[in-house]
Design goal:
Length: about 525
């Protein structure tokens, strides 16, 4: 379908809303598990077309159809753009579906002689028979997190530019059409084997008014990608919130891992201030009027050090990053300004999406599952080896306590520890002189670098957050008991096509690739 021109959003519902049964599809594989749904690949039996089915989770819904699904459907019905995932239709199941019935039958056979277990199973069957509602999407081979976390995956600079350009184009379309995405992160950026990138998961998206009528919730956007204004309690905000997340994704693509891995909201804010400097009335007019500023402002002055931390990025990349990771949302670059950045017009130019390599399909959910299985296999073999060597050295005591495998102990996160280092990409990251291709669209004049010269002063940065309690409205730390991974020890986990970073391995930038923060989606209350 042709994309609607910016400003001319499609107002006609172009999709069929629930007139067909899910039995028109055969489920193939479980590829995603989100807060609000399970995602499967499926084949439409009549046409053979492969699609993604997102089953809307109804089990926790006391108040009917989940608001996130209503939002997602309402907004996606109207957005039609090559960089926004296409919602094809909604299908329903009146009761348990063919494959569920088959599975239930199989499970019942297995449970036959298991007494209480059998009763439990029957209860589960009753809940399954509720039926369901599915969103049918065009199928995309990967999500960005799944693709980047794969061991050995490297992106070249033209590839990063190509993905970034598409991300910005899709977001520009949303923003022009007054839609805020509010959950930009790697697992919500889908990529197909034609190199197309599309924004997905509009469950937190929202229409906004530029005159800021009414208040919006600030508990949106996955923590690591959440901008400082939301963390300081802003309830009147606009597209700039998504642009902060874009900055985080951009740095992550070049750097090889998430750059701001806060454990909770105050810690996230502190990490932001450590990197971007303390906010004040000069670099961010009216910041002191934000609701939680007094509670959460840093106790020490911190200097901006984006340029030092990411000094290994090339000049144009750093300039773009600097304008995206700008504290003041009013000075942060818009999607249009970012698209006009020198970065996209300097050699090497973004590659043609079609020229990108084709990869075996990879979604965050599957990548995590594979890693979990890998860890389990490693543990089993480690344990059997150690038992073997104990046997040879000296006999074990008779009552030997079996210990949990190291990665499951304490605060370690099974998914984030011991990630294989991401391999370094090719080294063609030195750009030639910038030159715009013929017929380039009009470009914004490069705005002044409001951050001024960079000052590296890591000594200043310890414990900037004043440790005062987070305002009562704040959520419980999403990371309770699962702090960030231990600092990386050497081995230079490389970025994608970029030289070794020039930061201390003990800083937050030295931590290994990790799970991508925590979605705020399990917060249904009062979301606006
Ligand atoms: N159209 C699609 N094609 C292929 N994979 C998809 C598609 N839509 C979603 N997925 C996969 O399923 C995952 C979860 O989808 P989605 O984010 O829409 O669900 P969610 O319940 O809203 O998740 P979350 O709670 O993480 O926000 C995605 O990260 C992606 O890997």
């Amino acid at each position: 379908m042709a994309a609607a021109a910016p400003g001319q959003i499609n107002t006609e519902p172009l999709i069929s809303l629930g007139s067909r049964s899910v039995d028109c599809f055969k489920k193939l594989e479980h590829i995603g598990e989100g807060t609000y749904g399970q995602v499967f690949t499926a084949r439409e039996t009549r046409t053979g077309e492969i699609v993604a089915l997102k089953k809307i989770r109804m089990d926790n819904e006391k108040e009917g159809f989940p608001i996130t699904a209503i939002r997602e459907i309402k907004i996606l019905k109207k957005l039609h753009h090559e960089n926004v995932v296409k919602l094809k239709e909604i299908v329903t199941s009146a009761g348990p579906e063919r494959d569920e019935l088959r599975n239930q039958g199989r499970e019942r056979d297995e449970q036959e002689n298991q007494g209480p277990e059998r009763d439990k199973q029957e209860n589960q069957d009753t809940s399954k028979s509720k039926g369901g509602i599915y969103m049918v999407f065009e199928y995309m081979d990967h999500d960005l997190t799944g693709l980047t976390v794969r061991s050995g995956q490297t992106f070249t600079v033209p590839q990063v530019k190509c993905y970034m350009k598409q991300l910005l184009t899709g977001l520009h379309y949303c923003h022009v059409n007054k839609v805020l995405h509010r959950d930009i992160k790697g697992s919500n950026l889908l990529i197909d084997n034609e190199g197309k990138l599309k924004l997905a998961d509009f469950g937190l998206a929202k229409y906004y008014c530029s005159n800021h009528e009414g208040n919006l919730t600030n508990r949106v956007i996955t923590l690591w990608y959440r901008p400082p204004e939301l963390l300081l309690g802003a309830t009147k905000y606009g597209p700039a919130v998504d642009m902060w997340s874009v900055g985080c994704i951009f740095a992550e693509l070049l750097h090889g891992k998430p750059i701001l891995q806060g454990r909770n909201e105050p810690d996230q804010l502190n990490k932001i201030f450590e990197l971007c400097g303390s906010p004040d009335e000069i670099n961010w007019p009216d910041v002191s009027k934000l609701p939680w500023y007094n509670n959460l402002k840093p106790t020490k002055t911190m200097k901006r050090c984006v340029g030092e931390i990411f000094g290994h990025f090339d000049f144009h990349a750093l300039d773009l990053l600097d304008h995206l990771l700008t504290l003041d949302p009013n000075q942060r670059w818009t999607a249009k300004q970012a698209l006009n950045a020198d970065y996209f017009w300097a050699d090497p130019l973004p590659c043609d999406p079609k020229s990108l390599p084709k990869y075996e399909s990879s979604h965050e959910f599957q990548t995590k599952k594979r890693k979990q299985q890998q860890h389990q296999t490693e543990d089993v073999s480690k344990r059997s080896k150690s038992q073997h060597s104990h046997k040879n050295d000296c006999p074990p005591p008779i009552q030997h306590t079996v210990q949990a495998p190291p990665q499951l102990q304490g605060s370690h996160h099974p998914m984030t520890d011991n990630q294989p280092p991401l391999s370094a990409g090719p080294s063609h990251h030195h750009y030639g002189k910038p030159h715009g291709p013929p017929g380039v669209p009009s470009r914004y004049p490069p705005s002044g670098n409001q951050s001024g010269p960079y000052h590296m002063n890591r000594g200043d940065q310890a414990g900037g957050y004043n440790g005062r309690p987070y305002p009562p409205q704040g959520r419980a730390p999403p990371y309770a008991g699962s702090g960030p991974s231990a600092p990386s020890t050497g081995g230079a986990p490389a970025g994608y096509g970029i030289g070794p970073p020039n930061y201390s391995q003990n800083s937050q930038y030295g931590v290994p690739a990790a799970d991508r923060g925590v979605s705020t989606r399990n917060q249904q209350y009062g979301r606006k």
